[in-house]
């Protein structure tokens, strides 16, 4: 993977699932990071091929919960971000996903207590020997790029020293969030200290912090000299921030997101969380739209609110798409009472919106 001159979607917990990554890529993101997943969780999972959705699912054994979902469409650009505090465990976890992603990234910047208390995230910033162990172990044993994401340390010189030690492990790139662990999102990102890191390294540096408009991509590059730019909140609030044509109306972006969540059977909790974040940046969740999302129990409820009721009409849908020519999957439609040949994309929609309705499809996956 080339890390130079790229627009990058940052890792965001409960947001960076497959639908949001694909949405961001549609608008122009070159590299898309998934949400951080803890190694302890991942090693309890197995890789499965989901023939119904056309996806690769990493599923927790026992609970059958989908911990990570990806697809061939994003294989060349998706980065799997992991939370870890142990080199051997990190490698075991990475080997489960490495053939389906473009790169593996280690989170070294999360300041949340659940991460730090487990010795992960920002807790690693004060443990350079452990950082070296984790990164070199992954580099020696994986055939895909390994990277990490850090925050600024107490002083610029401390950050530079750590960045140089990280560079010596052989990582392909380093992402730098221009805030310290104690800083809050409202505190301005320090682009000048990112510039100090860029000047000290020869590997690509990805600058992160306070990118909210398309023009900010070039502004932060000019200020820091960074190879590429990463955006989090700016993309969450309006994923079309990646488009050189300018932002689209928020309502259009939210509808596109809802459609992708339905297509890819996204976890309803993730869908609701992301929509609430999209809404809260410009309106109160106590208004009708926010309340409708909060009260929704299924994607059918979400679809109804955003004017996607047509996705719930199985017979009309199959009829509408009957002229499509795509790789086909045969399923038994209990509503129509006969086997119906539909495309894989149609099936994803039909499966997702059929929850709590009389039209249900049995989803089968296979281990691979």
Automatic annotation (TrEMBL):
Lipid biosynthesis as UniProt keyword: no
GO cellular component labels: cytoplasm
Positions of the DUS-like FMN-binding domain: 9-273
Keywords attached to this entry: Flavoprotein, FMN, Oxidoreductase, tRNA processing
GO MF terms held by the record: flavin adenine dinucleotide binding; tRNA dihydrouridine synthase activity
Taxonomic superkingdom: Eukaryota
Requisite cofactors: FMN
CDD domains: DUS_like_FMN
Designated name of the protein: tRNA-dihydrouridine synthase
Natural source organism: Heracleum sosnowskyi
């Amino acid at each position: 993977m080339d890390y130079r001159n790229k627009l990058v979607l940052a890792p965001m917990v409960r947001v960076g699932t497959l639908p949001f990554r694909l949405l961001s890529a549609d608008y122009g993101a070159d590299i898309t990071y998934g949400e951080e997943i803890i190694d302890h969780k991942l090693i309890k999972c197995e890789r499965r091929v989901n023939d119904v959705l056309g996806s690769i699912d990493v599923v927790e054994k026992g609970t059958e919960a989908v911990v990570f979902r990806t697809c061939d469409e994003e294989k060349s650009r998706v980065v799997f971000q992991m939370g870890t505090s142990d080199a051997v465990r990190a490698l075991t976890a990475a080997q489960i996903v490495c053939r389906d992603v473009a790169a593996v990234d280690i989170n070294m910047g999360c300041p949340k207590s659940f991460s730090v208390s487990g010795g992960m995230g920002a807790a690693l910033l004060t443990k350079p020997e452990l950082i070296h162990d984790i990164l070199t172990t992954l580099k020696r044993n994986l055939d895909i790029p390994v990277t990490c994401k850090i925050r600024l340390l107490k002083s610029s010189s401390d950050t530079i020293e750590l960045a140089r030690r990280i560079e010596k492990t052989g990582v392909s790139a380093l992402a730098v969030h221009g805030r310290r662990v104690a800083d809050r999102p409202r505190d301005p990102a320090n682009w000048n200290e990112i510039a100090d890191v860029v000047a000290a390294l020869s590997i690509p540096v990805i600058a992160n912090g306070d990118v909210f408009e398309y023009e900010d991509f070039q502004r932060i590059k000019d200020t820091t000299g960074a190879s590429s730019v990463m955006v989090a909140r700016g993309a969450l609030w309006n994923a079309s921030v990646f488009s050189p044509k300018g932002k689209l109306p928020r309502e259009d972006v939210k509808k596109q997101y809802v459609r992708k969540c339905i297509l890819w059977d996204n976890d309803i909790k993730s869908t609701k969380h992301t929509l609430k974040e999209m809404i809260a940046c410009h309106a109160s969740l106590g208004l009708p739209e926010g309340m409708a999302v909060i009260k929704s129990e299924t994607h059918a409820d979400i679809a109804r609110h955003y004017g996607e009721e047509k996705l719930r009409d199985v017979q009309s849908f199959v009829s509408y798409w009957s002229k499509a020519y795509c790789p086909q999957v045969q399923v038994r439609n209990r509503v129509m009472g006969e086997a119906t040949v539909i495309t894989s994309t149609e099936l994803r929609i039909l499966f997702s919106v059929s929850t709590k309705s009389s039209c249900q499809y049995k989803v089968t996956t296979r281990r691979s």
